[in-house]
Design goal:
2 domains; 4 helices; single chain; 9 strands; flat; four-stranded antiparallel β-sheet; alpha+beta
Protein backbone atom coordinates (compact mmCIF):
# COMPACT_ATOMS: atom_id res chain seq x y z
CA UNK A 1 0.00 0.00 0.00
CA UNK A 2 1.42 3.37 -1.02
CA UNK A 3 2.05 5.92 1.68
CA UNK A 4 2.97 9.61 1.91
CA UNK A 5 6.07 10.98 3.63
CA UNK A 6 5.11 14.20 5.36
CA UNK A 7 8.79 15.20 5.63
CA UNK A 8 9.76 15.20 1.94
CA UNK A 9 6.46 14.61 0.10
CA UNK A 10 7.45 11.21 -1.36
CA UNK A 11 4.54 9.00 -2.41
CA UNK A 12 5.27 5.29 -2.69
CA UNK A 13 5.99 2.15 -0.75
CA UNK A 14 7.88 2.48 2.54
CA UNK A 15 11.20 0.71 3.08
CA UNK A 16 12.20 -1.28 6.18
CA UNK A 17 15.21 0.13 8.04
CA UNK A 18 17.25 -1.52 10.79
CA UNK A 19 19.52 0.48 13.07
CA UNK A 20 23.03 -0.72 13.84
CA UNK A 21 25.43 -2.79 11.79
CA UNK A 22 25.20 -6.43 10.75
CA UNK A 23 29.00 -6.67 10.83
CA UNK A 24 29.13 -5.51 14.47
CA UNK A 25 26.37 -7.98 15.31
CA UNK A 26 28.27 -10.83 13.66
CA UNK A 27 31.52 -9.98 15.47
CA UNK A 28 29.71 -9.78 18.83
CA UNK A 29 28.07 -13.16 18.22
CA UNK A 30 31.39 -14.76 17.20
CA UNK A 31 33.41 -13.49 20.14
CA UNK A 32 30.96 -12.67 22.94
CA UNK A 33 27.66 -14.54 23.13
CA UNK A 34 25.76 -12.34 25.61
CA UNK A 35 26.64 -8.95 24.02
CA UNK A 36 25.73 -10.45 20.62
CA UNK A 37 22.32 -11.49 21.96
CA UNK A 38 21.69 -8.05 23.50
CA UNK A 39 22.79 -6.25 20.30
CA UNK A 40 20.57 -8.50 18.14
CA UNK A 41 17.54 -7.85 20.33
CA UNK A 42 18.20 -4.09 20.17
CA UNK A 43 18.55 -4.20 16.35
CA UNK A 44 15.33 -6.17 15.91
CA UNK A 45 13.39 -3.90 18.26
CA UNK A 46 14.66 -0.77 16.46
CA UNK A 47 13.41 -1.76 12.97
CA UNK A 48 11.03 0.68 11.36
CA UNK A 49 9.35 1.42 8.05
CA UNK A 50 10.43 4.75 6.63
CA UNK A 51 10.65 6.87 3.54
CA UNK A 52 13.07 5.46 0.93
CA UNK A 53 14.22 9.00 0.04
CA UNK A 54 14.74 10.73 3.39
CA UNK A 55 14.59 7.72 5.78
CA UNK A 56 12.13 9.59 8.04
CA UNK A 57 9.54 7.68 10.06
CA UNK A 58 6.78 10.03 8.89
CA UNK A 59 5.03 7.80 6.31
CA UNK A 60 1.21 7.89 6.57
CA UNK A 61 -1.54 6.14 4.53
CA UNK A 62 -2.68 8.04 1.43
CA UNK A 63 -6.34 7.77 2.43
CA UNK A 64 -5.84 9.52 5.78
CA UNK A 65 -7.26 13.08 6.17
CA UNK A 66 -3.78 14.49 6.86
CA UNK A 67 -2.41 12.93 3.64
CA UNK A 68 -5.33 14.22 1.56
CA UNK A 69 -4.82 17.75 2.92
CA UNK A 70 -1.06 17.53 2.35
CA UNK A 71 -1.53 16.34 -1.27
CA UNK A 72 -3.95 19.20 -1.97
CA UNK A 73 -1.38 21.74 -0.76
CA UNK A 74 1.79 20.15 -2.22
CA UNK A 75 2.88 18.31 -5.32
CA UNK A 76 3.90 14.73 -4.41
CA UNK A 77 7.48 13.67 -5.11
CA UNK A 78 7.66 10.27 -6.78
CA UNK A 79 10.62 8.00 -7.32
CA UNK A 80 12.99 9.29 -10.02
CA UNK A 81 12.60 7.72 -13.45
CA UNK A 82 15.54 5.58 -14.56
CA UNK A 83 17.65 7.00 -17.38
CA UNK A 84 17.06 5.28 -20.69
CA UNK A 85 19.49 5.43 -23.58
CA UNK A 86 17.84 5.97 -26.95
CA UNK A 87 20.19 5.06 -29.81
CA UNK A 88 20.16 7.12 -33.00
CA UNK A 89 17.95 5.86 -35.84
CA UNK A 90 19.35 3.09 -38.03
CA UNK A 91 21.26 4.52 -40.94
CA UNK A 92 21.92 7.84 -39.19
CA UNK A 93 25.11 9.40 -40.49
CA UNK A 94 26.57 12.32 -38.63
CA UNK A 95 27.84 15.28 -40.64
CA UNK A 96 31.48 14.99 -41.62
CA UNK A 97 33.85 16.87 -39.33
CA UNK A 98 37.59 16.90 -38.84
CA UNK A 99 39.09 14.44 -36.37
CA UNK A 100 39.77 17.19 -33.81
CA UNK A 101 36.16 18.44 -34.00
CA UNK A 102 34.47 15.04 -34.00
CA UNK A 103 32.49 14.33 -30.86
CA UNK A 104 32.00 10.93 -29.32
CA UNK A 105 29.09 10.00 -27.05
CA UNK A 106 30.86 8.73 -23.94
CA UNK A 107 29.43 6.47 -21.25
CA UNK A 108 30.97 5.96 -17.76
CA UNK A 109 29.70 3.29 -15.34
CA UNK A 110 26.57 2.71 -17.42
CA UNK A 111 25.59 6.40 -17.67
CA UNK A 112 26.04 8.56 -20.73
CA UNK A 113 28.02 11.67 -19.80
CA UNK A 114 27.72 13.47 -23.11
CA UNK A 115 29.38 14.13 -26.45
CA UNK A 116 33.09 14.85 -26.04
CA UNK A 117 35.88 15.76 -28.44
CA UNK A 118 39.04 13.68 -28.67
CA UNK A 119 41.02 16.37 -26.83
CA UNK A 120 38.45 16.39 -23.99
CA UNK A 121 38.60 12.59 -23.77
CA UNK A 122 42.43 12.70 -23.68
CA UNK A 123 42.33 15.25 -20.86
CA UNK A 124 39.82 13.21 -18.86
CA UNK A 125 41.87 10.05 -19.40
CA UNK A 126 45.03 11.77 -18.16
CA UNK A 127 43.22 13.11 -15.06
CA UNK A 128 41.69 9.65 -14.41
CA UNK A 129 38.15 11.02 -14.80
CA UNK A 130 37.74 8.38 -17.51
CA UNK A 131 39.41 5.02 -18.03
CA UNK A 132 40.13 3.10 -21.22
CA UNK A 133 37.42 0.61 -20.20
CA UNK A 134 34.71 3.31 -20.35
CA UNK A 135 32.73 3.22 -23.58
CA UNK A 136 31.71 5.39 -26.53
CA UNK A 137 28.99 4.92 -29.12
CA UNK A 138 30.57 3.73 -32.36
CA UNK A 139 28.37 5.04 -35.18
CA UNK A 140 30.01 2.63 -37.63
CA UNK A 141 28.78 -0.47 -35.82
CA UNK A 142 25.86 1.10 -33.89
CA UNK A 143 27.27 -0.38 -30.67
CA UNK A 144 29.10 0.78 -27.56
CA UNK A 145 32.84 0.13 -27.68
CA UNK A 146 35.75 0.73 -25.25
CA UNK A 147 37.44 4.14 -25.45
CA UNK A 148 40.81 2.57 -26.32
CA UNK A 149 39.31 1.59 -29.71
CA UNK A 150 38.94 5.24 -30.81
CA UNK A 151 41.53 5.55 -33.63
CA UNK A 152 42.54 9.13 -32.70
CA UNK A 153 43.53 8.06 -29.17
CA UNK A 154 46.05 5.41 -30.19
Amino acid sequence: MSKLCTSCGFVGLPKKFTKGSFLVELILWLFMLLPGLIYSIWRLSSQYEGCPQCEAKTMIPLDSPVAKTFLQQHQPVSAPEPLVFIPPPTGYVSPSVTASQKKYRVCRNGREIGALTVSSIRGMLSSNSLSNEDTFFDEGTNEWAPLFSIPELS
